[in-house]
Amino acid sequence: MSDYLGPVLPGSYLGILGGGQLGRMFTQAAQAMGYKVCVLDPDSDSPAGSIAEKFIQADYTDSAALKKMAALCQSVSTEFENVPAQALDELESLGAFVAPRSSCVSLAQNRVAEKNFLATWKAETNIGPVPYCVIEREADVPHAPTDLFPGILKTARMGYDGKGQITVYEIADLAAAWAELGKVPCVLEKRMDLDFEVSALVVRGYDDAVVAYPVSQNIHRDGILHTSTVPAPSLKAPQEKKIIEAAKALIRKIDYVGVLCVEFFVLKSGDIVANEIAPRPHNSGHYTMD
Which contacts qualify for 174-177: CB closer than 8 Å, 24 or more apart? Predict the structure, then answer.
């Protein structure tokens, strides 16, 4: 990526990796501002690809397709966090301005890396992750700390909307739960005494300007976001200030350009812990379009 990004003016092409719901929203917003959009997605029926000026149907790691996109688009983004990081790196090497960068997306793609990062981030913000341990091999299972039970075992990669996770009530059940998840690398998180969940949507520009939207209070059903209420009705003013300041510190720390969501748990004790990072316009922020 070049050290200086000149203005990308209306009439230019913007690229988006992923042609789903968020990609379609991106395309519509860009077109309303006078831009053209190039979508790359493996699905021939992608919602964004059907309305974009240019649609490239290809795998995200298809080098020929990425070269076509880089030749057409000065700037490229991704609609969701599971686009392979190598695709972002390749686009950047071809001269496109890529935001968010692969280092930011990679952090959200792996719960082990994410939890380890949030643990170091706690020193700056006094908000860390829930207590956890990593289960990567058979020998890790009997050594899981007993104070993490009951807990939730989550796959390190590709789990979302409640998928790829199992509640484990005691250490005797851990081996079976890990086997059920395929014995892939996992994170065991302590189940907390949760009061409510919130998310902070924060945005950073190329010029390092950072702004945050009001914190949203969220309700999930079956692991899927059901409702978001803004401003968060149960959140006290000092808590909201702490959350927004922490989210702003995080987006700068990882050198993220674009829209980022940080999810938090507010415990019945009043303490705040970080749940996860979503490197995209999160569903809890869709109200900002209106």
Answer: 174/135, 174/141, 174/144, 175/141, 177/153
Give residue 108's pLDDT band: very low, low, confident or very high (50, 70, 90).
Answer: confident
Cα Rg for the chain, rounded, in angstroms? 20
Residue that is last in its domain, among 190, 214, 236: 190
* Alpha helices, H only, 44-202: 63-72, 85-93, 102-109, 111-125, 174-180
Domain that holds residue 282: 123-128+192-289
pLDDT tens profile 141-165:
999 999 999 999 999 987 665 678 9
- Looking at the structure of the chain, the number of domains it has is 3
pTM, two decimals, is: 0.89
Question: Are 179 and 204 spatial neighbours (Cβ–Cβ below 8 Å)?
Answer: no
Q: Can you tell me whether residue 94 is helix, strand or coil?
A: coil
